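[scheduler] slot 2 assigned
[scheduler] job type: sequence-to-structure, two independent chains
[scheduler] chain ordering preserved from manifest
[runner] begin chain α
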Amino acid sequence: MNTDLQDFSHNRFNILTGEWILVSPHRAKRPWQGQKEAVVNGQRPSHDSSCYLCAGNTRINGEINPDYPDVYVFTNDFAALQSDSKTFSVDDGLFKAKSEQGICKVICFSPDHSKSLAGMEVSDIDKVIQVWQKEYVSLGENDTINYVQIFENKGAVMGCSNPHPHGQIWSQSNLPNEVVKKDKHQKEYYEKNKRSLLGDYLAQEIKAEERIIYKNDHFVVLTPFWAVWPFETMIVPKNNQSDIAQMNSQESMAFADAISAITRAYDVLFDCSFPYSSGIHQAPTNGESNEHWHWHMSFYPPLLRSATVKKFMVGYEMFGSPQRDITAEQAADRLRELI
């Protein structure tokens, strides 16, 4: 390991977005007198009569949830995107705008209100993955949908308004900013080298063995070299697949195993139900080959030093570039020990 990276401030390059991040390992020793988050570790009931997502309960729009046995999907009652949005554009000098259509869905991972992915069996997580695959394909077949974003916000500190285990899917007609950047850099690398950018990166990570946290027959869990969030991780398939629909049943189960491993480690790290935002970046559904894409799932947790101290993206991060204190290698070491 390059010890300079552990002792001195430096910049690291994100190969997927083309952006730099400032790493300041010496700042991890600074005293903390800032805000401390509340820790909620109380056991939730398996069913909450006041929860809009629990089976059999009535949602705010008057619809009644079925008595679902495992995974339940429905169209978001407060969708950010409209499927019937009028098509229009504005091109008036420096005023530019264009309409956006889309479909937003909510996915309840389990009928058990007390669970999270970390507390679910691998076989039950696999059921969630199968629904992700189905929704990616079905939404992508819609002529107005060119990208499908699967994500989860876990914990109140991440703005999650309901603790019931659930995630979301936002599908839309235009590619969002992060996807545009990753599409560009993966395509440029593929056209030049005829190989997957993430595939080559993964091979280098496996050889280095510095940031690998967990691996099974089909997936690797690692802290990216360019990670921004303190305990950020990425799950990458060993095979070059452009989207999750290309997984077979064995690979899907191995993906579930990888998700289980990292989410359980998160909960042990600071002895709390670990908050994060996670999401899957994969090939657009725009009808192109997209052979340059190598799909991956990222976890962005905000906790920095303990269950009560979180990382804030403010000041320099808002006006300059992202910055982190503990290095990717240090974070990977701590998570690896917990699996």
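[runner] end chain α
[runner] begin chain β
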Amino acid sequence: MLVLASKSKARHAMLEAAGVVIESLPPNVDEEALKAGLQADGVTARNLADALAEAKAVRLSRRIGPALVLGGDQVLALEDGSMLDKPLDRDDAKAHLQLLSGKKHKLFSAAVIADQGSPVWRHVDIATLTMRPLSDTFIDSYVEAEWDNIRHCVGCYEIEAHGAQLFSDIKGNHFTIMGLPLLHLLDYLRVRGVMTS
């Protein structure tokens, strides 16, 4: 069995759908403080995603003892390297979409597995997404209709749902966009005997 250091319903559902026997527990990491400190040090989006995933996995692993613990995180970076977080409210979501409209951005999805308090495996995957030009009218109606689904999503979209309407081009793995480098993770779980090969 794998323990997910998160209460993310999306990651839990993704793993469960792939046949992974999983339990989800909160990692009890002050993610905002950790993120702020790392960003103040000028960390890149890729390394931020990796560090946050590691912090969650290691913290929970130290607390629960022998078990494979998975931490995951996703960071969105604009072409200039600046990063967007989850929207604070509907107006913030609309501002994010106006910023992303007609441009490319990258999603960095990180996964780290810890065993007995130490990281033993990690992977960061990247997807590049090009958002089509969006009208203010479209953005307003989209955010109003989808707010409950996108309020916890960086970029303000769920690619597996109506968020597909936002894009003109996508390069990268579908699971990476959803928040987890799933295929690489499944390979490691087979190596560890958590899943059959």
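[runner] end chain β
[qc] chain β: The first strand starts at residue 2 and ends at 5.
[scheduler] slot 2 released
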